[in-house]
Specification:
With 165 residues, this protein is mainly alpha-helical. The protein is built from eight helices and four strands.
Length: 165
């Protein structure tokens, strides 16, 4: 979680009015009730932050379905077109985001094709540029899309505004 605290500029730790739920897989029946209970208890907007990859897009899709019917807004704040634009503004000259991407596995590429075939709407989450990256067989993990080794220091503040606004 240290990378997230850094990206959001929370050098003294997470603010008291923020709760983090961490899930590394789509939300199934076993966890849906617990997640709904936490979200209902806080009654605050939910912002999903995840990689530009099939697993995290599936996780957001299942989270959104899990929270249907609640009165709290659920927003995708993960890697997509706006995130890509911000990153590009903070890359050194002659660097490209493509160099930070990694190849998707065959199962990931198949999951992407299946999601498109059944109309899950991942293209709307990723945006046209994010979808083009995915369609070319690569993904962009949060670690690559936030690393202080690749970007100027002011990236963190802009990503914090993207996620928290």
């Amino acid at each position: 979680m240290d990378w997230l605290l850094h990206v959001l500029g929370w050098t003294d730790g997470m603010p008291d009015d923020i709760a983090l739920l961490w899930r590394w897989a789509p939300v199934g029946k076993a966890h849906a009730g617990a997640i709904r209970s936490v979200v209902e208890a806080f009654g605050a907007p939910v912002v999903f932050v995840g990689d530009l990859d099939p697993l995290d897009l599936a996780t957001f899709s299942t989270l959104e379905r899990c929270l249907r019917g609640l009165t709290v807004p659920v927003r995708y704040g993960g890697v997509g077109d706006r995130w890509l634009e911000i990153c590009e503004q903070h890359l050194p000259p002659r660097s490209s985001l493509r160099s930070l991407c990694i190849p998707m596995s065959d199962p990931e590429q198949e999951a992407l094709r299946r999601a498109e075939a059944i109309g899950l709407g991942w293209g709307a989450l990723a945006g046209p540029r994010g979808s083009a990256l995915l369609g070319s067989g690569v993904k962009l993990e949060l670690e690559g899309a936030t690393s202080p080794h690749f970007f100027s220091p002011s990236l963190a503040g802009e990503l914090a505004r993207l996620v928290l606004d």
